[in-house]
């Protein structure tokens, strides 16, 4: 990490803090306002005149647990996310090991193919994927969500882990080899422990993308059997009630808090993870 | 791949005694050559299933009329119709307009913020604060903006209180104002993505070069333009590509905030495919649009992305 750098000629501190402070305000104001939406009674949300100083109420909290199958949404999200991350790691760790530590024909093309799946717009494959899962009888199940989240994140996870594996000094492996260890044992006993930060970073980013996923979930899920929090939000609307914004806001914060804590914990690795290893932050 | 090692093991059982050892060695040699392929194969097969299968399926389906009931082959019918479908071209245009404005804004803002933040003693604090919008679910962010501009009329009310307008603003009925809402939501949520990457890039630059330039009396913008920016080029390229991919596939915000309206003025290509397939159940037509997008994606991937990623990793 860079130490504190000196100021250059002609740079004004006032301007710096005006700009940074201004952006911080721009980031936080909508968040705080939305929090106030989550903690106000329903009648104070959509009014002829917006209410800026609302009264406090836990209406939304009771509503999401009592009137809505929030527990099911939460369970579906967590199960689909954990399942997909496990599938990703099982597939990605050997693949990354192969791409990072072996030389063979076609390696770069295989690597790029894996990367290029990240470029596929979900909408492009949406129709066929929908029929695929329908034919498999997996529509409206968390199994379908698991499989699709895993597919979306696999390129990311593989490339992040590969990037960390490239950093391991070759000597470490050679030493183990002269001791007679096989490739698989080297992977298990030396490489995986050494790239653990990369594996954790990749898992966290995969988790965020899985929580956020919207289009596939919208197509696959049609009942609380498979609704996740992300798509359930768009169902807090309906009929004469209109959009139930206080419940939406509260669910948004319920999902935000764990993600925020985990991301702060891996902050140091975030830039590297977000660029699939291209930037070593 | 595993099949290739079978004949060797067969040979080993057929020839008893002494030859078992060399045969085993031969087999293990072949296994060694196959090992990297075996390791990468499960991931590749999985991705092929989820990309190649849908690709082939979409191509076949695109030559059929698929509504309710059985598929009816219609040759290039869907493609001919697409070429003259102003909604399809409109969706491409909207995606391009909304995407490029959003991307340019995010890039400029993130560079400026990163430039001011990376030398600040509280850079870690700024990073955490700026990160916050990115960590909300996109569907939640869409509702924040929907409530703020449309349903809650909060923005119009604030402008009225400031005396800037004297009535409600009908954002829904203006194409450009609806586009601005989509752009604003995207800028708010995803500028941090670029910011985090740019800060890391700037922190990674050689401090001594920067210091030497400073002692030579170079001003901050000279350092930024002549030292930092050239050094950052590959990082900026990779970050922008990743952002561009996500922006051009924008769906959630359109689905929640504008539904593509007014007058299809905010319909992105993803939303067009969704609407054609899953609202009008015109699956053959949606598949034809998907195939065209797939071709564009592959071209862009081969021509632009490959270069940027391969060069950034030497």
- Termini separation of chain B comes to 30 Å
Q: How confident is the prediction overall: mean pLDDT of chain A?
A: 88
Number of helices of chain B: 13
Give the C-alpha Rg of chain A.
23 Å
Number of strands of chain A: 0
Q: Indicate the structural class of chain A.
A: mainly alpha
Main sheet summary of chain B: 2 strands, antiparallel
Tell me what portion of residues of chain B adopts beta-strand conformation: under 5%
- CATH class wording of the largest domain in chain B: Mainly Alpha
Helical content band of chain A:
55-70%
What would the CATH topology of the largest domain in chain A be? MetI-like fold
CATH class of the largest domain in chain A: Mainly Alpha
C-alpha Rg of chain B (nearest Å): 27 Å
Overall outline of chain A? globular
The tally of domains of chain B stands at 2
Describe the structure.
By secondary structure, chain A is an all-alpha fold. Chain A has two domains: 13-57, no CATH class; 68-274, MetI-like (MetI-like fold, Orthogonal Bundle), CATH 1.10.3720.10. Helices cover 68% and strands 0% of the residues of chain A. Chain A has helices at residues 13-38, 59-66, 70-101, 107-116, 122-135, 142-166, 170-178, 183-194, 196-212, 215-220, 229-232, 245-265, 267-274. Chain A starts with 12 loop residues before the first helix and ends in a 7-residue tail after the last helix. Chain B is an all-alpha fold. Chain B has two domains: 2-62, no CATH class; 77-205 and 235-312, MetI-like (MetI-like fold). Chain B has 13 helices and two strands. Chain B has helices at residues 6-14, 20-62, 77-83, 86-117, 123-131, 138-151, 154-161, 175-203, 207-215, 220-248, 252-258, 269-279, 283-312; strands at residues 64-65, 72-73. Chain B has a two-stranded antiparallel sheet. The longest helix of chain B has 43 residues, at 20-62. Chains A and B meet through helix 1, helix 3, helix 4, helix 5 and helix 6 of A and helix 2, helix 4, helix 5, helix 6 and helix 8 of B.
């Amino acid at each position: 990490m860079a130490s504190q750098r000196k100021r250059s000629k002609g740079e004004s501190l006032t301007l710096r803090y005006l700009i940074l402070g201004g952006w911080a305000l721009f980031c936080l104001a909508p968040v705080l306002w939305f929090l106030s939406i989550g903690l106000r009674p329903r009648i104070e949300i959509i009014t002829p005149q917006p209410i800026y100083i609302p009264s406090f109420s836990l209406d939304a909290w009771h509503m999401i647990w009592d009137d809505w199958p929030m527990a099911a949404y939460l369970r579906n999200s967590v199960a689909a996310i954990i399942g997909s991350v496990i599938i990703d790691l099982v597939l990605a760790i050997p693949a990354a090991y192969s791409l990072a530590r072996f030389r063979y024909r076609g390696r770069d093309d295989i690597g790029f193919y894996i990367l290029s799946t990240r470029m596929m717009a979900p909408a492009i494959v949406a129709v066929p994927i929908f029929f695929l899962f329908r034919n498999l009888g997996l529509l409206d199940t968390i199994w379908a969500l698991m499989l699709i989240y895993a597919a979306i994140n696999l390129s990311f996870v593989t490339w992040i882990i590969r990037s960390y594996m490239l950093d391991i000094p070759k000597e470490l492996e050679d030493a183990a080899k002269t001791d007679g260890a096989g490739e698989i044992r080297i992977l298990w006993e030396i490489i995986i422990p050494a790239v653990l930060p990369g594996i954790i970073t990749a898992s966290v980013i995969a988790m965020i993308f899985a929580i956020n996923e919207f289009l596939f979930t919208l197509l696959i899920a049609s009942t609380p059997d498979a609704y996740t929090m992300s798509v359930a939000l768009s169902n807090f609307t309906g009929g004469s009630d209109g959009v139930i914004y206080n419940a939406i806001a509260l669910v948004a914060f319920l999902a935000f808090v764990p993600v925020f804590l985990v991301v702060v914990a891996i902050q140091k690795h975030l830039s590297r993870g977000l660029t699939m290893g291209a930037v070593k932050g | 791949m595993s099949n290739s090692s079978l004949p060797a093991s067969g040979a080993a059982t057929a020839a008893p005694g002494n030859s078992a050892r060399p045969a085993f060695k031969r087999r293990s040699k072949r296994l060694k050559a196959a090992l990297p392929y075996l390791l990468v194969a499960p991931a590749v097969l999985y991705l092929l299933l989820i990309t190649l299968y849908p690709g082939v399926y979409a191509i076949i389906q695109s030559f059929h009329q698929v509504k309710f009931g059985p598929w009816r082959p219609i040759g290039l019918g869907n493609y001919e119709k697409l070429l003259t479908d102003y909604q399809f071209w409109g969706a491409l245009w909207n995606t391009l307009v909304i995407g490029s404005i959003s991307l340019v804004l995010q890039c400029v803002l993130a560079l400026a913020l990163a430039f001011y933040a990376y030398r600040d003693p509280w850079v870690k604090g700024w990073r955490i604060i700026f990160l916050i919008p990115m960590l909300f679910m996109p569907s939640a962010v869409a509702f924040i903006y929907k409530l703020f501009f449309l349903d809650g009329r909060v923005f119009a009310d604030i402008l009225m209180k400031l005396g800037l307008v004297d009535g409600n603003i009908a954002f829904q009925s203006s194409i450009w104002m609806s586009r601005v809402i989509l752009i604003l939501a995207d800028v708010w949520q995803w500028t941090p993505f670029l910011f985090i990457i740019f800060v890391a890039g700037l922190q990674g630059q050689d401090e001594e070069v920067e210091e030497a330039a400073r002692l030579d009396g170079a001003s901050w913008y000279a350092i930024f333009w002549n030292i930092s920016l050239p050094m950052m080029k590959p990082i900026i390229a990779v970050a922008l590509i990743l952002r561009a991919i996500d922006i051009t596939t924008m769906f959630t915000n359109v689905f929640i905030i504008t539904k593509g309206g007014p007058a299809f003025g905010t319909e992105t290509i993803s939303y067009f495919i969704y609407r054609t397939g899953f609202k009008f159940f015109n699956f053959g037509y949606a598949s034809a649009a998907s195939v065209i997008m797939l071709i564009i994606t592959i071209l862009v991937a081969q021509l632009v992305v490959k270069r940027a990623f391969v060069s950034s990793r030497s």
